[in-house]
Amino acid sequence: MTDWFYPLPPLIEGTLLKRYKRFFADIELETGEVITAHCPNTGPMTGVCHIGGRVLVSQSSDPRRKLAYTWELAEVNDTVPTWAGVNTALPNRVVKSLLEARQIPELGDYTTIRPEVRYGGDGKSRIDFVIAGEDAAPITYIEVKNTTWAKGTLALFPDTVTTRGQKHLRELTALIPTAQAVMLYFINRGDCTAFSPGDEADPTYGLLLREAIAKGVQILPCRFDITPAGLRYLGLAPLVLA
Length: 242
Description:
By secondary structure, the chain is mainly β. The chain is built from 3 helices and 16 strands.
């Protein structure tokens, strides 16, 4: 565990009543008030979305917002309750902060960080980050994937068929050897100690990931301790491919 910490805004506790139309969640706050919060996660949220479960929301004072509340965390794991991140916009902000603080030594030395860079054969894809040094070494492309599905202490990605994720793996693999390519799995729950591809949910993705590794794509499964106060970086989880 490192001393690096990413704070979260003040959060309000409630109980999840319903999630619907992907973007909406009805939540009963501790005061008894029922609010509709924005759900910033369009995926199935396997193992994370529990009706009747404890959740935490943030509140915005921006009058332009249609929904003042955002669903941020959900309590998971009946055996040892822990918090998992719901807001899929958060991992990129956290990774940017990690990169700026040079907290991922596996990435080596670099002097510049560029987010949202166009790349790929058609030029229509965007990579989450590109880092580069001052020398002539190849630049590094980094794709970030939010990861919350788990079986026991094993984090898994993806939790559903993802043609977009498959495309990202193919594009990262195509960068080798003229550039360095990194797939960073953001393990957004603190109860997982290892990472594996979600072969059960998307076997094609699992095959592509193994092919990417064989061709030189670097895999960084990054662990985080998630609390209502914020996120603490725990380092890398072992990669399990068996």
